[in-house]
Design brief:
With about 150 residues, this protein is of the alpha+beta class. It is built from four helices and eight strands. A hairpin with a 4-residue loop joins β7 and β8. α1 crosses α3.
Length: about 150
């Protein structure tokens, strides 16, 4: 499932700020992110980090684990679960909010600041990949994973 989520996340084109796979992120940035806004996340569970700091310290941004989406923009220590996530959409009343709807009917609003559109697309890709039975749809892979993996670090 970890590989499926990573492939889905990397298939979403990003701008200046986008998720980077854990292998491409400095360990200190991951530890800073966990300490700052994902305290219940184990370092081994981190799939990708979107670091929004100028110096790439990891202290601000988004962290995606195998189980949750965390952010420095969310209430301290709040992680939105990936399990049971049914849909993600931009809030029509606030362009900085992503509405996450769960199979239980629960609807949560995640403040994603200026990154809301990108985060919404990432969450939609994660949902689509999980609906495909754990195998990312070929169009997700074709859109960006292979191109991303061809980069050297």
């Amino acid at each position: 499932m970890r590989e499926t989520i990573e492939a889905a996340v990397l298939s979403v084109p990003g701008g200046t700020f986008s998720f980077q796979p854990v292998a491409a992120v400095e360990g200190k940035a991951i530890r800073n992110a966990i300490q700052r806004y994902a305290p219940d996340c184990a370092e081994a569970d981190v799939i990708a980090l979107m670091d929004t700091t100028l110096l790439h310290s990891g202290r601000s941004g988004f962290l995606l684990s195998a189980k949750h989406l965390y952010s420095s923009f969310f209430e301290a220590g709040t992680g939105f679960p990936l399990q049971g996530l049914k849909s993600a959409a931009l809030d029509s009343g606030n362009e900085h909010l992503v509405k996450l709807t769960y199979e239980s009917g629960e609807v949560c609003s995640a403040f994603a600041n200026i990154y809301a559109e990108y985060i919404c697309k990432v969450m939609q890709a994660v949902i689509q990949s999980s609906e495909a039975g754990g195998t990312p749809p070929s169009e997700l892979i074709d859109q960006g994973v292979e191109a991303y993996r061809s980069k050297s670090y």
